[in-house]
Design goal:
Order of helices and strands: HHH
Helix content: 25-40%
Largest sheet: none
Structural class: mainly alpha
Shape: globular
Number of strands: 0
Length: 69
């Protein structure tokens, strides 16, 4: 199967938190994980709060996807 060259170029582009991740979080997560609700003490409305994590610790380790739960 051949992939269009545009697909290959996008795979090499670094992920943008603001452009790639925030829309996913807004669509699927921030309904329960925002300052007014904080399910699991986990706020996903800012990068800093996302990085901090919730009652079970940090959500991810930047640059270490293999160590992220």
């Amino acid at each position: 199967m051949l992939l269009p060259i545009a697909c290959l170029a996008d795979a090499a582009k670094p992920v943008s938190y603001y452009h790639d991740i925030v829309p996913l979080l807004k669509r699927s997560c921030t309904g329960c994980h925002h300052p007014g609700k904080l399910k699991g003490e986990f706020d996903l409305t800012t990068y800093a709060s996302f990085q901090k994590g919730g009652k079970h610790g940090g959500a991810f380790q930047a640059g270490k996807p293999e160590e992220t739960e």
